[in-house]
Amino acid sequence: MSFRSYLRDRGLPVAIVLIGLATGAAQLLYWWLAPAPKVSEFVGPPRSGYTLTNFQLWSYDVDGLPSFEMVAPHLERRENDESLYINTPDFTLPSNEAGVPPWLGKSLYAWVDKSGTLLKLQGPVYMHRAAFAQTDAAEMHTSDVTAWPKENRMVTDAPAHMVQGPRTLNGVGMRANLNTNHLELFDEVTGSFPPRPKKSQAAPRPAGPGTAHPAAGTGQAG
């Protein structure tokens, strides 16, 4: 059988094979001649979804109670994960307890996740709470804090310095629960706890009729 007869009798399969070979050759030629993909020259953080200036932010927990509040000059929302990047915020962590004042603070930067359950305070962090009832005013100096504001918990691996009235505490690494006033320092802990002033004794009431007086001083046998 001649080659021409072979092609005539099997025209369709041969055509399919030839088309496949031509397509593969064309693809190889394109890969060889096509220019290299352009490398992105952009350097920096992900693109912002939006920015705000001189804003105020409120976040609430599942029960509708205030979780935290922020005031800052600049905020950027990221498109990729909808997180918030904030510059020089002043923040408030409410106690949600009657008669107990909130913690007020400030940091260099802050980051808040999409759900508002995770807050990172970056750079130096300062917090203070006013005195109330029989509790002295308190303040805290630390840095790079990770906080869960809806649970009023926070941790840091950085040095921390706390002052409450005449008492001081210092350490490296801290874990705190602001709801239960529980504080734990991890390493290099030092502190100063001067004795509390004694309560003044109440003045004795004047004796009425039929009331016995305790003797003044120490009695001695005659």
From TrEMBL:
Region Disordered, residue ranges: 189-222
UniProt cross-references to Pfam families, sorted A to Z: LptC
Stored InterPro entries: LipoPS_assembly_LptC-rel, LPS_export_LptC, LptC
Keywords: Cell inner membrane, Cell membrane, Membrane, Transmembrane, Transmembrane helix
Transmembrane segment boundaries: 12-33
Keyword Cell membrane attributed: yes
Biased composition (Low complexity): 201-222
Protein name: Lipopolysaccharide export system protein LptC
